[in-house]
Design brief:
Chain B: Pfam families: Amino_oxidase. The complex is a heterotrimer. By secondary structure, chain A is α/β, with parallel strands linked by helices. In chain A, the strands form four sheets. Chain A has an eight-stranded mixed beta sheet with strand order 8-7-6-15-16-17-14-18, sandwiched between helices. In chain A, strands 1, 2, 10, 11, 12, 13 and 19 form a seven-stranded mixed beta sheet that branches. In chain A, helix 7 crosses helix 8. Chain A starts with a strand and ends in an 8-residue tail after the last helix. In chain B, strands 12-3-2-16-22 form a five-stranded parallel beta sheet, covered by helices on one side. By secondary structure, chain C is α+β, with helices and mostly antiparallel strands. Chain C has three domains: 155 residues, Gyrase A, domain 2; 80 residues, Aminomethyltransferase beta-barrel domains (Alpha-Beta Plaits, 2-Layer Sandwich), CATH 3.30.70; 101 residues, Beta Barrel (Elongation Factor Tu (Ef-tu), domain 3), CATH 2.40.30.110. In chain C, the strands form four sheets. Chain C has a six-stranded mixed beta sheet, with helices on both faces. Chain C has a six-stranded antiparallel β-barrel with strand order 14-17-16-15-18-19. Classes of the chains: A alpha/beta, B alpha/beta, C alpha+beta. At the A-C interface, helix 11 of A face helix 4 of C.
């Protein structure tokens, strides 16, 4: 039987990044994925024959040049179909607002009141985000004593904050745990611009713009300036690049390999058993699953009850669904130029509407007016579709995992209708052009990807679950108490989005630990 | 029009203004307190609004008043007595209830009735909260450091905070960080499975705030209501004998005993400011009082936006003050009762009827009450904190009669569509609350002799609290500690030399605590080169 | 329970104040002293008449102490053994069926949560008996396992029958087969009644566990049978003397149960309580195992030791010094032992005292003499526990004495 140095559970971007990093360091690695394809949350889905669409995640913003380079993603086929997408915030009065790196304006080119205030606010939050970004490639600062090797990054953060000047530093400390509602409305009026900016602070989470802590999430999203890019070939192609990166580093990837349980010898993990009974031995196991599922696979009895309790308490209320459409023709949004159709089209009319939409989700109800992030990826990337049709990808915010009536086909259909009807208002004829529709509820996302609660970030990204509190106190530095066992998924620091960083960090943490002799 | 000279003037005779006045007068300064109303006390008042009935018509229970202040100012000798109340309860719509007995054994049996697992969980919970109280209490009477200025005193204070935090140990540090950033609902969800128990405890996380039980940061608000004590019993609440005015009365007596002067019925027009330095105050009647030190008990917005002339303050400061969130979220109803109301299925002898009573039985119900507030409506199914203090303090009404105080969460300051609170809306608001109580107490409506309904507008008009917010500013992290009220000015000072804040807008915030008042006095005395108490910043 | 509409007609749905145990109506007539104390919400006797007589009855006759307020939990189901082994530090797999073991259990930091007795009826049936409530902790421990936790604290009543003639009493009462019961054995003697040869006195003795509804029946059988053997009810104070002589520790007295501590530093590992023998690192993971391995490596920070102190003044609440000057710890339990004729104490010493430095220990004893307090610095020696040992405790079959 082959003896691996490391077994990685899950071929999502983090699992693959971890595998590539480990294999790159000369370790013999196998990745085990229960599905037939890589990707997890970042995969493609065939909406109808000939219609490829990003299944869940559809845009990249936090995938850094550093990871692209270190994983050699471009060498492995990764490319952008479009970069720095403009963001279009739809307005029911037809006065849609466009924002991009240059500024904000009406879609017809008209100037917008409050532009200066908005840009100042955005620039300030981006400055803050840059400072925080210093922390993302290291395990979070430890509460149980400072590791001097890591103190450098904390020192850098402190110095960076200091360099921003007193006023910025004060403002940073003030807004750090604040909510996006007040932080944004202190500067500009409520409306589509405020909604568009705030969407990044709540997207994927079970929070409303009024929830304190959402500014921190917003800053996380702004770490790369907040620009959004569309990968060529959909997110599935990004995953193929991650996959190739891992493979070319020497990692082996097995699909259709669901891990049934882990094998332990004493207090050390020594391998896994697959659902089909196959036993695979490895000196380390890195799991891109959430902590609770990982601990269950390793055997609850191998962890202290308090640790299990903390893992059970991680908040993972998924609140985001996905609607993918196959369209017979390109939709035409009234008032948007052709170019803008290739952008990121939002339905986030105001913070008040978003907060109200969150209200419904809190009580397990379907949205009546959906908050949407829409792309039509086939415009910039015609290769996604065979023929003349198009695919539309819509992330739907405020769709509860625990729907009162449960997630059956009628609920899925109802959600699909609400989304299509909403879009049809802005792009008349869109509804008629729909030839196939795929609705993924948070429950479906959980079933497909294993993300608990269907939560996009494997755990709420709010202050009490970030940094040294992510995923839970005591396991914030990737290692679980069982020797050789690590977490490497989005539930760990720094968190969600297609970044590969948790995976890389976890792999590095695993490489730093010298295993005892028995592991050999 | 007259002119008099003092060493220090305090504007506003709320409990904090009085406390500041006391400390300054005790140190030998000639101190004047001017108060707009004809009576002192601000929100801590006892008023006879119905013949024979004393109402604690604003603030209604006492716990947070710092014991250090009580002792420093000898308030017991000046008549202050706080009677702890036993127990409390939440009524349930199925006719059952959850009684929060102060007797631990009875409480365990009662919890077991609702959930067996929650019995031990409650002990774990109360241990946790007490631990957090112990952590925070010493910080209440200290001036927050300015984390960006690196003056020796800031560094010293930061190190003090850091050391206190570090001394908790890794596990408690993490618990503390989580506790300060999470919502009261999620915090309680981690301990309990019974909805009514969670709902009973969650009230403390939202009282007085524009936040819901699932808003991150509300676990801290819960702590803010728990960190008080009555005679060393942490988290206990009590009635001030003779109503909450008893606190102000004792402070007023202590102040006058130290030689201070109070001028009631003296509304401030503006602060006298020259060359960035305060020189006194001008009243609406034109009277002028001069002093080199002026301390404002008003909230930060009222102080700087209403009574300081344009141009005297830096633009950034004004902007920060305007941004300071003071959100009206509560209403009050005081009711004169012809007798003790009875409650469905509960014998009148039940001791918990003498404590705080509620009728919100789930976290979702509380969260929905908040949703209404966000949309500019008062809650259709409001959370209320209902007490009948006359069960333990019969001095407040004629014998056999009772007085009920109701604190209602939520009531927005701004009603949707710009509607007015005055008139039919006020009545409709009161009816909502009274109808809800009547569902649990069949004879309640018939016992009502008189009621005083106080909307956020009423509280603002009468007490001067902006939007009627009881804390003079939201208790969210962006407005706590060194961020309160304005980053860079958490040391009770202001851009105007000699002008200080001593109200709840300042650290550590609201509640009848007198900590801001005491802290402000210490900073004033330190600037004057006099010795106050405790540690100056 | 939630949602259930209680019958509130006769007042409140729960009793306030202390409640009576199932044996209360039998015991109450003996209470000449009317000296009661609260115990887990129940009324419990501190003494019935004089502590002295009750103490001597433990060592010379037979005594009944009502242990109904103890917390009792049934842990049953397929994974019962796994759950129990996850909970406690010792190896429950090595405990035979129908055997009882003393044990402790720890939190994740290796601090003792409580101690108690673990009854093993079979691999799928256990009962835990302890001082501190553990219901929700047991659920935390059992999460993810196929097991049922039932709180039997109110449904099972208990009597401790302790003293040299306790076996004779049982025999007289006609409980057949008890003669074969070895120490730490347990047997069913009648429907709803189990007898274990366990106790807190270090003497020959039994604990009788009976369904609350059958408490009267048990009493009516036992009490007349004891009349020729000096059987008498005793209160907690006399029992406490016997338990110190026996060298047993008591929660909240000799150690602070960590779940009831606000200060994490008050937690003590089993090693620090002198209970190394209870920790089995070989059995696989159990709660606190990793922390205990680390604690073992690090060595104890404090150590609970037995002390024999010169003089005869009990060293209650006393500080312990090294070389009369350096504070080394404090006494947690103390008494003048009327049976051993020694001045005994349990004390918590801070390392290195008690661990590597064991000599030159002194105890500062304060005692009142007719309204005047006097202070004595008395020399103390670390003494082996149990202080009281007697062969009759373990003889099987036991003597009738």
């Amino acid at each position: 039987m082959t003896q691996y140095d490391a077994i990685v559970i899950g071929a999502g971007h983090n699992g693959l990044a971890a595998a590539a990093t480990l294999a790159g360091a000369g370790k013999k690695v196998v990745v085990l994925e229960k599905n037939g394809d890589p990707g997890g949350m970042a995969a493609n889905s065939t909406v109808a024959p000939g219609y490829e669409c990003p299944a869940m995640a559809h845009l990249l913003s936090n995938l850094d040049g550093a990871e692209i380079a270190s994983l050699g993603l471009e060498r492995h086929g990764f490319a952008y179909a479009a970069t720095d997408l403009p963001t279009i915030s739809l307005s029911s009065d037809g006065k849609h607002i466009v924002s991009d790196a240059k500024g904000v304006r009406y879609a017809d080119g008209g100037a917008l009141a409050g532009e200066a205030e908005f840009l100042t606010l955005r620039a300030r939050l981006i400055r803050f985000a840059d400072q925080l970004a210093a922390l993302k490639r290291k395990p979070p600062p430890s509460l149980s004593g400072i590791d001097w090797r890591e103190a450098a990054s904390l020192g850098k953060l402190a110095l960076g904050l200091r360099r921003m000047g007193k006023e910025d530093m004060r403002e940073f400390l003030r807004v750090l745990l604040s909510n996006s509602y007040d932080t944004i409305l202190d500067e500009i009026d409520d409306g589509p611009l405020a909604g568009a900016f705030a969407l990044d602070s709540v997207l994927g989470g079970h929070v409303g713009p009024r929830s304190p802590g959402t500014v921190l999430t917003l800053m996380y999203r702004l770490a790369n300036g907040g620009a959004k890019h569309q990968p060529r070939g959909g997110m599935g192609a990004v995953m193929r690049a991650f996959e190739k990166s891992a493979k070319s580093a020497g990692a082996e990837i097995r699909y259709g390999a669901a891990v049934e349980r882990m094998v332990l010898s004493g207090d050390r993990v020594t391998g896994v058993v697959l659902a089909d009974g196959t036993e695979i031995s490895g000196a380390r196991v890195l799991s891109s699953l959430d902590p609770k599922t990982t601990m269950v696979l390793a055997g609850v009895g191998n962890f202290d009850a308090e640790m299990i309790r903390r893992a059970r308490h991680i908040r993972t209320k998924g609140c985001t669904a996905k609607v993918n459409l196959a369209l017979s023709a390109a939709p035409v949004f009234t008032g948007l130029s052709d170019d803008l159709h290739r952008g990121r089209i939002l339905h986030a009319p105001s913070l008040a509407v978003m907060e109200k939409a969150f209200n419904l989700a809190k009580y397990g109800e379907l949205p009546t007016s959906p908050i949407l992030e829409v792309t039509i990826p086939s415009l910039a990337d015609p290769g996604l579709v065979d023929g003349d049709g198009h695919v539309l990808s819509a992330v739907v915010q405020y769709v509860p995992y625990s729907l009162k009536q449960g997630w059956a086909d009628d609920s899925r259909n109802a959600l699909g209708d609400v989304v299509v009807d909403c879009l049809d208002q802005f792009a008349p004829g869109l509804k008629a052009a729909v030839t196939a529709r795929q609705v993924l509820s948070p429950a479906d996302i959980e079933a497909q990807t294993g993300a608990p609660g269907g939560h996009w970030h494997h755990g709420e990204m709010i202050a009490d679950q970030m940094l040294m509190l992510r995923p839970a106190p005591g396991i914030e530095r990737y290692a679980l108490p069982v020797e050789g066992l690590y977490l490497c998924g989005a539930s760990t620091h720094p968190g969600g989005d297609v970044t590969g960083i948790p995976g890389c960090n976890a792999a590095k943490a695993a490489l730093q630990v010298k295993l005892g002799r028995a592991a050999a | 029009m007259k002119t008099e000279q003092y060493d220090a003037i305090v504007v506003g005779a709320g409990h904090n203004g009085l406390a500041t006045g006391c400390y300054l007068a005790k140190s030998g300064l000639k101190v004047l307190i001017v108060e707009r109303n004809d009576y002192i006390g601000g929100a801590a008042v006892s008023r006879e609004l119905y013949s024979g009935w004393t109402y604690s018509n604003c603030s209604y229970v006492c716990s947070l008043l710092r014991p250090e202040v009580v002792r420093d100012l000898d308030l017991a000798r000046h008549g202050l007595q706080v009677i702890p109340y036993e127990s409390g309860a939440t009524f349930m719509s199925n006719g059952d209830h959850f009684a929060y007995y102060s007797d631990h054994d009875a409480l365990r049996r009662e919890i077991a009735r609702h959930s067996k697992k929650d019995v031990d969980a409650y002990d774990r919970y109360s241990k946790f909260v007490t631990k957090q109280c112990r952590f925070i209490k010493p910080l209440l009477l200290r001036t927050p450091p300015d984390p960006v200025r690196f003056r020796p005193r800031d560094i010293q204070e930061l190190l003090y905070l850091g050391k206190r935090f570090h001394d908790l140990g890794a596990r408690d540090m993490a618990d503390t960080l989580r506790f300060y950033t999470m919502s009261v609902g999620e915090f309680l969800d981690e301990f309990f499975e019974s909805e009514v128990i969670k709902a009973h405890l969650a009230g403390s996380g939202i009282i007085g705030t524009g936040l819901g039980v699932y808003s991150p940061g509300t676990a801290y608000v819960l702590l803010h209501h728990y960190m008080g004590e009555v005679d060393g019993s942490i988290g206990a609440w009590g009635f001030t004998r003779g109503g909450m005015g008893g606190v102000s009365k004792a402070l007023g007596k202590a102040f006058e005993a130290s030689g201070g002067t109070i001028k009631a019925g003296s509304a401030l027009d503006r602060f006298l400011i020259k060359n960035g330095k305060v020189e006194g105050v001008v009243l609406e009647n034109g009277d002028t009082y001069t002093a080199n030190t002026v301390v404002s008990n008003m909230d930060v917005r009222r102080t700087f936006l209403n009574h300081v002339e344009d141009g005297e303050l830096p633009g950034d400061f004004v902007k920060a003050v305007k941004r300071f969130k003071i959100r009206g979220s509560s209403g009050k109803i005081n009711i004169a009762l012809d007798g003790a109301p009875t409650f469905n299925n509960i014998p009148g002898t039940a001791n918990f009827l003498r404590g705080d009573l509620h009728a919100s039985e789930s976290l979702d119900e509380l969260e929905r009450a908040y949703d209404a507030w966000k949309e500019g409506r008062w809650s259709e199914d409001p959370y209320f904190d209902m007490l009948i203090p006359t069960h333990v303090d019969p001095t407040m009404t004629p014998p056999g009669k009772h007085m009920m105080t109701l604190f209602i969460q939520y009531a927005p300051y701004e009603l949707a569509n710009g509607e007015s609170w005055d008139g039919p809306n006020r009545d409709a608001f009161a009816d909502t609350v009274i109808d809800k109580i009547a569902r649990y107490s069949p004879d309640f409506k018939d016992l009502i002799l008189h009621k005083e309904v106080r909307t956020p507008w009423d509280i603002e008009r009468e007490v001067g609290l902006t939007e009627g917010n009881i804390f003079q500013g939201e208790l969210t992290f962006d407005q706590l500690l060194f961020n309160r009220p304005v980053p860079g000015y958490a040391d009770y000072r202001s851009p105007i030399r000699g002008l200080y804040l001593c109200g709840s807008s300042a650290h550590p915030g609201g509640g009848v605590m007198a900590a801001p008042g005491a802290n402000a006095a210490r900073e004033v005395l330190s600037d004057l080169g006099r010795k106050g108490f405790g540690r100056a910043a | 329970m939630t949602g259930h509409r209680p019958n509130l007609k006769d007042g409140l749905p729960v009793r306030r104040g202390l409640v009576e145990t199932p044996f209360d109506r039998h015991l109450r007539p003996f209470s000449l002293a009317e000296d009661w104390m609260p115990w887990a919400g129940f009324v419990s006797a501190r003494r019935f008449e004089t502590v002295e007589a009750e103490y001597f009855a433990i060592r010379n006759q037979a005594t009944l102490f009502d242990i109904s307020p103890m917390h009792k939990y049934a842990i049953t189901g397929r994974d019962a053994l796994a759950v129990v082994n996850r909970l406690v530090t010792r190896n429950a797999a090595k405990l035979g069926d129908n055997r009882v073991g003393y044990t402790v259990w720890c939190d994740e930091d290796g601090s003792v949560i409580d101690d108690g007795t673990l009854f093993r009826f079979s691999e799928t049936e256990f009962q835990l008996c302890c001082q501190e409530p553990q219901y929700s902790w047991l659920h935390d421990i059992a999460w993810g396992f196929d097991v049922t936790i039932e709180d039997q604290s109110d449904t099972i009543a208990g009597l401790a029958l302790q003293g040299p003639t306790s076996f004779a009493v049982l025999k007289e009462a006609g409980f057949d087969g008890v003669e074969n019961l070895k120490p730490f054995g347990i047997m069913d003697v009648a429907s709803g009644l189990k007898i274990s040869r366990t106790g807190f006195t270090g003497d020959l003795g039994y604990e009788l566990w009976v369904e609350a509804s059958k408490a009267d029946e048990l009493w009516d059988r036992l009490w007349p049978a004891g009349q020729n053997y000096g059987l008498r009810p005793i209160g907690g104070e006399a029992l406490d003397m016997a338990r110190i002589e026996a060298g047993f520790i008591a929660a909240r007295v000799d150690f602070q149960p960590i779940h009831d501590a606000q200060r994490p530093s008050r937690g003590r590992t089993p090693f620090e309580l002198g209970l190394d023998w209870l920790v089995d690192f070989e059995k696989g993971h159990f709660n606190g195992r990793r922390a205990l391995l680390e604690a073992q490596r690090r060595g104890p920070r404090t150590l609970l030791v037995g002390l024999e102190i010169e003089g005869h003044k009990p060293a209650r609440d006393a500080f312990v010094y090294h070389g009369k000057k350096k504070e080394a710890g404090h006494v947690t339990s103390a008494l003048w032992s009327p049976t051993c004729k020694r001045n005994l104490a349990l004390a918590e010493l801070r390392a290195p005292y008690g661990v590597s430095v064991k000599d030159d220990l002194w105890v500062e004893i304060y005692h009142p003499k007719e309204g005047k307090w006097e202070k004595v610095m008395a020399q103390a020696k670390i003494a082996e526990r149990p202080f009281f040992k007697n062969k009759r405790r373990s003889a099987t079959p036991p003597g009738l004495f």
